[in-house]
Design a protein that fits this description.
This protein is of the alpha/beta class and about 280 residues long. It has eleven helices and seven strands. The protein has a seven-stranded mixed β-sheet with strand order 3-2-1-4-5-7-6, sandwiched between helices. Bound molecules: S-adenosylmethionine. S-adenosylmethionine (SAM) binds next to α5.
Length: about 280
């Protein structure tokens, strides 16, 4: 396996994640026998504006209960489960991290959603599915770790049925460089590959997709992170949070994301593309 892929895989592979999530739920007094999707939200929706963004993307998607949708780079599956729960569609989530996939499966079982929502470890650049398998595709904040974006888009195109819709919610570059590191998706620049929104859009189109919706969400992201201040001393972290996914320096990462947004070093795009 390529060194670049190995680095990303190890970044997203914390030890004993499932038990640490259960311990966090226990500490905040959640009843495990009556767990809800909302209870997991602080840890299982690892993207800018969390569940609010997921619900906007569900509205945008038009996915319905007769569909089978692929979530590419699903993490521990929070938005995969939300998508199935809200629309009734069947979902399959894939992720590079075997640790995340195991946790995604176990959390899904805990919620009794395993008939509708399934997961498997796979690389987005070499998807283990036949051509024209899925009615729709959904990919949230994964592109930042992908250098070879054209291969990723070609894979999305290949596994989507003709007429299928692809929902993307992705961080891109902006007018200024360099990006401050670490950020939530990368410890340093070797793990991050951002292209300008125009270049991103051109790649989607050159793959064969038609871009039906293109919304700039940068200002909403900027507002969401505007309260972040530079962390000092030992971090005060909640019992349940995305620090469990990518480490206790999460406040530094969130602060750097805030600076990158304020200084126009990153942008955020929401898009719906259709396979003609
Ligand atoms: C910032 S997280 C977002 C996770 C999830 N989409 C969410 O919104 O909660 C990025 C995810 O992309 C996954 N990822 C990065 N590169 C990948 C690749 N080449 N193939 C599959 N997954 C990948 C990581 O393992 C990680 O789970």
């Amino acid at each position: 396996m390529k060194k670049e892929i190995k680095n990303i895989q190890s970044y997203y592979s914390p030890n004993d994640l499932y038990n640490r999530i259960l311990a966090g739920l226990d500490e905040i007094g959640k009843d495990m026998s009556r767990l809800t999707l909302d209870d997991l939200q602080p840890v299982d929706e690892f993207h800018i504006r969390g569940d609010t963004a997921t619900r906007e993307l569900i509205n945008l998607s038009g996915f319905t209960s007769d569909m089978h949708v692929l979530d590419v780079g699903c993490g521990v599956g929070g938005s995969t489960r939300r998508l199935s729960y809200e629309t009734g569609c069947r979902t399959t989530g894939i992720d590079l991290s075997e640790e995340y996939i195991e946790v995604a499966q176990r959390l899904t079982q805990l919620l009794g959603m395993q008939d509708l929502v399934q997961f498997r470890a796979s690389n987005a650049l070499d998807l283990s599915f036949s051509d024209n398998t899925f009615d729709g595709v959904w990919s949230i904040q994964m592109n930042m770790n992908v250098h070879d974006k054209l291969t990723w888009f070609k894979e999305l195109y290949r596994v989507t049925k003709p007429g299928g819709r692809v929902v993307l919610y992705e961080v891109c570059a902006n007018r200024n460089t360099p990006v401050y590191f670490p950020v939530p998706w990368a410890q340093d620049s070797s793990m991050s590959c951002l292209v300008a929104p125009d270049e991103f859009r051109d790649m989607i189109i050159s793959t064969g997709f038609e871009v039906e919706t293109w919304n700039d969400k940068t200002e909403l992201a900027r507002i969401a992170f505007s309260h972040m201040t530079e962390p000092t001393g030992e971090p005060e972290l909640p019992e349940l949070g995305v620090h469990l996914l990518v480490g206790n320096d999460i406040l530094t990462k969130a602060y750097n994301l805030h600076r990158n947004l304020e200084e126009e070093r990153v942008s955020l795009i929401e898009s719906l593309a259709v396979k003609k």
